[in-house]
Amino acid sequence: MDFNVSLAANGTSEGNFLKKNSFSVFSILILTLLVILIIATFVWNLLVLVTILRVKTFHRVPHNLVASMAVSDVMVAALVMPLSLVNELSARRWRLGRLLCHVWISFDVLCCTASIWNVTAIALDRYWSITRHLEYTLKTRKKISNIMIGLTWALSAVISLSPLFGWGETYTADEENCQVSQDPSYTIFSTFGAFYLPLCVVLFVYWKIYKAAKFRIGTRKRNAVMPNAEMVQVSKLLLCTS
């Protein structure tokens, strides 16, 4: 009886030991993959910035828009993702204090919103370069792209810094919780400004680009067919006169 009990106890302890070891191995694997992802994101976007800065032919539109998006992605990899990893390793309990919580959440919202709006700015630049290629000169593109970059970061700053001025709370000391402000009005404002509005703009712009490209293809086809019809008419006249 005692022998069976000891076997059962040993089996249970061995099972727990294997579970703990398997969990630790799995955790180390996930941690390694996340660290590699952070490093790859940082290095890749840093190389994009270095390339744009060093190659003179890239010192024009839309490469300044691409550089702006790379800056936001570098900031995500350098400031947001490491703190996110620390938060995950702590079972999502924030133990780094209120200040770092505000820094983490603010940069998270700032960089992600800026990245989304930079994509929107690139879409607008493509649309205007296709539909207004005569008016949308290089000088005009540079001016408008700089304005769009400024508005992108200004809007992103307004959305990300609003909780610091009392619009909701991001840090709860008792629960050791750090998250984006859950105030309903701020949630609506930030979600609309950081996702739904740029999404609608991008979808509308690319639909207009598709329509413009389709119109150009139809115009080229008509221009290619018309000379052939005229040649047929000329050949008929020549045959009749002969």
The gist of it:
With 242 residues, this protein is an all-alpha fold. The protein has 5 helices and 2 strands.
Structure description:
By secondary structure, the protein is mainly alpha-helical. The chain has a single domain, classed as Rhopdopsin 7-helix transmembrane proteins (Up-down Bundle). The chain is 81% helix and 2% strand. The protein has five helices and two strands; from the N terminus they run ααααββα. It has helices at residues 2-54, 63-89, 97-131, 138-161, 184-241; strands at 171-172, 177-178. Strands 1-2 form a two-stranded antiparallel ribbon. β1 (171-172) and β2 (177-178) form a beta hairpin. α4 packs antiparallel against α5. The N and C termini lie far apart (121 Å). Residues 1-15, 17-22 and 229-242 have low confidence and may be disordered.
Topology:
Elements: H1 2-54, H2 63-89, H3 97-131, H4 138-161, E1 171-172, E2 177-178, H5 184-241
Antiparallel strand pairs: 1-2
Q: How much beta, percentage-wise?
A: under 5%
Largest sheet: 2 strands, antiparallel
Query: What count of helical segments does DSSP give?
Result: 5
Within the largest sheet, what's the order of strands? Answer: 1-2
Instruction: Using the CA coordinates, give the radius of gyration.
Output: 29 Å
CATH architecture: Up-down Bundle
Overall form: elongated
Within CATH, the superfamily carries the name Rhodopsin 7-helix transmembrane proteins
